[in-house]
Structure formats: C-alpha cells, structure tokens
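Q&A log
Question type: sequence-to-structure
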Amino acid sequence: MRRTIKIYDTTLRDGTQGEGVSFSMEDKVRLAARFDAIGIHYIEGGWPGSNPKDLRFFRRMQDVSLKHAKLCAFSMTRRAGVSAAGDANMQSLIEAGAPVATIVGKSWDFHVTQALETTLPENLAMIGDTIAYLRPKMDEVMYDAEHFFDGFRANPEYALATLKAAAGAGAHWIVLCDTNGGTLPHDLVAILQVVKREVPARLGIHVHNDAECAVANSLAAVREGVEQVQGTMNGFGERCGNANLVSIIPSLVLKMGVDCIPEPNLRVLRDVSRFVSELANRKPWTSQPYVGDSAFAHKGGMHVSAVLKHPDTYEHIDPQAVGNHRRVLVSELSGKSNIVWKAREYGIDLDQATPDSRRILDELKALEDQGFQFEGAEASFELLMERALGRHRPYFELDAYRVIVEEQHADAPVAEATVRVRVKGILEHTAAAGNGPVNALDHALRKALEEFYPSLKTMQLLDYKVRILDESKGTGAKTRVLITSGDGEDTWGTVGVADNIIEASWQALVDSVEYKLRRDERRGASR
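Response status: OK
Response body:
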C-alpha cells in the first residue's frame, strides 16, 4: 500500500516574506483556488493577527468553497505572562474562521531567553496553554517548532521538551522547522530518528534553503516517516527561500512512489508555477527543475541526436508528466518540435494539422515574440483563441483616446482621460478623471459603455502590475501590463504589451471589459 503525504502550502504567508514578493488580497484568493484545484491538503493563508490584509483575506475566504484543501491561519504562542484566552492574537485567529490553526513556538533555548526574554519553563507553558486553548475550537491544531534543529544541537533535552509540551496539550501535528536553513541531510535524519523515539506524534517538516538543501531535507524526512511536508511554490520565502513544492511534489509521486496530490494533476504543475510567478510579478526561473523552460532543453550535437531517438537518454522523466515540454535549441527540427510542444502546452492538438489550430498557434507565437505571456491572463488567451478562429465579435470599436496628467501648484497631479468609442453604431464621447492615467481611462471607457451594457457596473479593477521586458533600453523599453478584474462572482486576468505603458494598459483594459461582456452573454444564453 502506497504511503500518503500531506502537502502544506505556505506561499501566501511564508512565501511573501521573500524579497520582492507581494500578493494583493485578490491575488491570494486566486492562488488559494489554484492550489486547492491541484489537490494541496493545507493552504496557509496568513497571520490574521499581524496585519489588516491577512484578516480581510480570511473574511473573504469565508465565501469561497474549497473542495480539497483546508485553510490554515498562522499565529504564535500566547505572550509570556498572559493567558491564552486574554491574548489578542488568539482572538484574531479564532475570528479568522479558518478550520486549522498553525502555531509557531520557540524550541531553541537561545531564542527563548534572548528573543522572547522569558524563562524556559514559561516558554513550555506558553506552548501547552496555547495548544490546549485552541484544540476544542479548531478542527486541527498544528505546532511549528521554530529553529528545532538548531535548538536540538544546542540543548536536545529542552528542544524535545517543547515538542512534548505541544503533544501533551493535544496538537494534531508536530512540525519540525529548520528555520535558519543550515541543516544538512545526514544531520536532519539523525535528529529525526531521536524525535521519533521520544515523541509519539504525527510529524511534519518545514525547512528553509540557506544551504540549498531544503528539497533534499524534505525528501529525506519523508523517508524517515514524516507524514506532512511544508513549503512554497517556486521556493519563495525569506532569505534564500523555503522548500520548493514544485520540486518536492513530483519527486514524491514519480520517484518515491508516494501519494500526495493526484498524479494526473502533476500535468498542470508548470502552469501553476508560472501562474504564481506572474502574480508575484517575477520572471519565471528558467532553470527551475521539472517546470523551467530549460528543464528539458537540449542543445545540438549528440544530445539532440540521442533524445530524438529515445528521450530517456537525456531526460529523467517524461516532461509531459509535469506539464512541461521538450525543447530542441539547435537543430533543423527545432522549429517543428517547438511548435508541437507549445501547442500542447495550450491544449491545441497539432497532430491533426487543422487550419484552425494553425491560425491559433501562429497568433500565439507572434504575440509571445512581442512579449505577451498568458500565464495569469487566462481571459486574454481565451479572447486570442476566439479572434484566431474568427469567432470574436467586438462589443465596441475605438475611435480615439487621450490621457492628460496635469500638476497644479503643490496639489497632487490630476489625470483625465477622454475616450471616443463606437457602440452599436453610436459614437460615444466621454471624459473622466482618476487617481492615475489608467484609472482615468478605466472610468472613461466604462462611462461610455455602461448605458449599453449595464452589467459593467459590477466590474472592478482589482489589481494592476507592470513589468519592463528589456531593462537595457531604459525608459524606451517595452512594457507588459497584467490586470486582474472581478465582478463579485469571478476574477480574471488580462494582459497588454506595448512600447507605451498607456497603450499596454488600454489593451489589457479592453480585454477585461470584452471578457466580462462575453461571459455575461454566454451565461444569459445558457439560462
């Protein structure tokens, strides 16, 4: 019988502690939905007691139905000298409404005396009191033993005592954390063997990557009987990052014969990885194992010859198993090979060589060559297919737009947009102000359209991201804009690319409006 390992994703909290990583509340909702869809068991949404955005996220998630995952709220043990019932963090945790509480506590005596500035016995009481207080109020309570491996090396008796305090209070899981990320696999295994003898509890592992051993340590822990693995998508996290779930999950399923997420769902792993990168506004890691563009890239000579004869010669798994594709970089066949695999990545079967498929693929290649990326911009890709198939019916036509940004005296700059569009044969000429040029354009466009399409009144621009595509060109560089929009029922992403940031924004805005109107029309027709 195959073992089952629970996957605990902390991208939405620990991942956001990475340098340059930030998600809006709507980003976090979209990410949680994607993680749930692929079969992640636990999704840590944030620390509701630490900031208003995380608290709003948990309130928002009360209206979102997760089909597979359990939502986890993170917090620390009660403060020294305060009862658990009287600790504000505990109340915020309960008010968040998540079914699972993840509590972090100190297991290194050095941290207890220096960081918390309390006594070793009081720290044990803080751990036990917090777990015991939360246990009847939550479906599950997990204890994250922070700095456990460093603590064990310094004072093994006390480090184990912290675990026993949590287990004795009823923690459902004890998670051993290599918070500084410096433990090597052989040391981790030796310490785990002691823990298994001394602490009768379900164990998890949470490691960081400061010695570049996070994935290796996580897999070694599974071999030693750990039943839960914590990590982040793409290894996002503080300093050098957390254990990378995008590498851990396929290693568990394909190489260790362990059940975690359903094996068919591995085929969307690349898409999920890139979706996370896009919402974090970070360029995907080209050489990322399993899912990176270079993971199955072959360059010239005997490598290409061998791979074309049999892929196993230079590929450790079938790239399709994780949603990736083979790339031949230097070869007469590289064009054909890239075309076939790129089409399959987007669900287009070119084996039939249909004219429709060719048109879609040609348009896709042309746009990606210009800098378009459709991960995180699903709505724009759907419209792209409709246009290539000749099925697209525009809901309005642009005549002209103009944006003015004016600064008067010491006041903040004022943005004003003027839009002329033709709607159902009628020319509409509107103007609107906004707190920036894109906001003003959004207001002016919708002002022109809402009389004809009242459902647009429910639509909101939720997030806006800009990426410079060629930094070497300075202010003349091409710009990619990603917009997230929503209407209370759904959220969707659109993309625009241009030398002019306003034009790129206009493209994404138009796609967003057209997607909304097209979706509403389909829904109306189906009723």
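Response note: Residues 330-343 have pLDDT under 50 and may be disordered.
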